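Entry 0007
Protein: Allophanate hydrolase subunit 1
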Amino acid sequence: MDSGTGVVDGADTARGSVVIVDCGDSGVVAKAVGMDAERAWRTVHALADAFDAVRLAGVHGIVPTYDSLLVEFDCADTDHDTVRRVLRHEADRLGEGPVTPPAARRFVVPVVYGGEFGPDLPVVADQLGLSEREVVELHSAADLTVRCLGAPAGAPMMDGPAFPRPVPRLSSPRTRVLPGSVAVAGRQAVICPMPSPGGWPLLGRTPLRVLEDLDADPLTAYRPGDTFRFVPITPEQWDDHAGRSLAVSHG
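Output (C-alpha cells):
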C-alpha cells in the first residue's frame, strides 16, 4: 500500500500490525491493531521510546496512550512523509523481537478516603452495590499499572481496581478538583496532580505532592509501566505525610 495514503505496508497480520496515518497538517498517528490490549500497549510505548531516541528535527510532541501514538511536529521543519518513514522503520525493527517494557517501579500512596477528602465514595459504593469499606478495600487491594500520562500535567492514568462494574462519570463535572485527589471512572483510576476541573468521582485524597515542577524534565517521577499501591490512612495521619514528594518505594 502506498505510504502517501497515510497507511504503511510491512504489517505482520499473524502477530498484529502498526498502522500509521496522517493526523491534520502537523501530526501522525501510529495505532497497534490485531493485538491483545497488553501487547498493543507495550508496542506503542516501545515505539514512542524508539522514535524519541531518533531525535528527529521538528518533532515537539510524542504522546503514547493505550493502543496508539500521536507524533506532533512543526511542518516548517519536517513533514508527514519523513515522520511516517521513521515510525515505519522503528515499528518494523520492534516487530523483529519481543517487546519488553522497562522494569516497573512501585509507588506507595497514602490516601484518606471519604468525607471531605473523597465526597463521592458513598455514591460510588451505592452504584457498585458495595459498602464504602468494600470500595476502599478493593481500591487499595492491588498494585495498579500506569498505562499513560493524561491531562492535566501528566496525570497517571491507571488500570482501575477490581470493581464489579465500571464506575460512571459525574453527571455534572466539578469546576475545581484539588491536587492529590484520587478518582475513578469506567475501569480506570487516576490521581489529579494539580488543581483542575474534573468529572471523575473522588474516592479520597493523598497528602503527597504528586507534581513538583511544571518545568521539570521529566515532568513526573513516574512513567507508564510503573505501579501505584494505595494505602488507607486516617485524617489524623494526614500531617505525617503532608509536604512529602511522591517517591519510588524500595520496601
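Curator remark: Residues 1-14 have pLDDT under 50 and may be disordered. DSSP finds five helices and 13 strands in the chain.
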